[in-house]
Amino acid sequence: MRKPKKLINDRNAVAREQFEGFMAAMSRDLESISNHTCAIRKAPLNGKVAVFTGGGAGHEPMYGGYVGEGLADAVAIGDVFAAPTPDAIFETALALNPENGVVFIYGNYAGDNMNFDIAAELLEDEGVRTHTIRVNDDVISAPIDNSKERRGIAGALFVLKVAGAAAARGDSFEQVVEVGEHALRSTSSIGVALGPCAIPRNNGFNFQIPDDEIEIGMGLHGEPGVGKSKLSSADDVVFEVMTKLEHEAELKEGDEVALLINNLGASTQMELLIANRAVHHYLSEKNVSVVDNLIGGYCTSLEMSGWSISLLKLDEQLKSLYQAPCQSFALRKSL
């Protein structure tokens, strides 16, 4: 059986070493928090609401890649596919001096939920106001009447972008919370896996997919989707995915969306562009306009082969905030 091959050093130190490489690239703008794989913006909050993100390593550039002007103010990163610890989150949040509160935005996974909740309680004890937005954009992972159980995938980028822009323009704590929750309700995603990923310390793949099959709805850590099916054409797979997303987003003629074609890790740019072509054909036939189109590795799963499609259904409020300028390691927008 084929073994995973990675050009690394110590397979138990990859989260730390990738963070050090990230900080080397961002040392002018970000400051690391001692003894943790965590960072904050060097620019002071100056009274703005703090936006804080985080999760396990292995999803680069999520989450650290979205710390910057007009986005998140802080990040806490755990080991590969593991949540950051409560003390790391707590100490990083305090380092921000968040006098107007902290809005946590992260993927809806049990470990992250538990550890961020503990940190939030500790911060509340210190007099710091908090609110948590658990991103659950993966519409395949649970039915709509049980949406709180849905997983978070690449759509977290849209929620961070909108909430970060609201905080950057000086919105109140309540306003940042409200528009962040609105962005989440307006975001829907589905992923398609063609091949597995491997946590470095395990030296083996997390799961197996036969060469002639795909799995629609697989999670970022290999959580099962709706089942495997025979590999078919890109157009057929996109049609199946978009039919579900159209229903979930309640798209109608004249709507506008931001579109993300996200590489889960090992897919080629060619495959992403072919998928993007099919998505545009689908939306054009529905008379739905694509206001912005992101294509690339925005939320990966190590070397998993496949892609995800995320839609942010825009209204005037969300459109204005989404289009606001930002600058970070992985996302830049100018006026």
Q: Any descriptors?
A:
single chain; 335 residues; alpha/beta; Rossmann fold; Hypothetical Protein Tm841, Chain: A,domain 3; 2 domains; six-stranded mixed β-sheet; globular
Q: Would you give an account of this structure?
A:
This protein is of the alpha/beta class and 335 residues long. The protein folds into 2 domains: 14-170 and 180-185, Dihydroxyacetone kinase, domain 1 (Rossmann fold, 3-Layer(aba) Sandwich), CATH 3.40.50.10440; 187-333, 2-Layer Sandwich (Hypothetical Protein Tm841, Chain: A,domain 3). The protein is built from 8 helices and 14 strands. Strands 1-2-4-3-5-6 form a 6-stranded mixed sheet, with helices on both faces. Strands 9-8-7-12-10-11 form a 6-stranded mixed sheet. Helix 4 packs antiparallel against helix 5 (173-185) and helix 6 (234-249) crosses helix 7. Its EC number is 2.7.1.29. Keywords: Kinase, Transferase. It is an enzyme of class 2 (transferase). GO terms for molecular function: glycerone kinase activity.
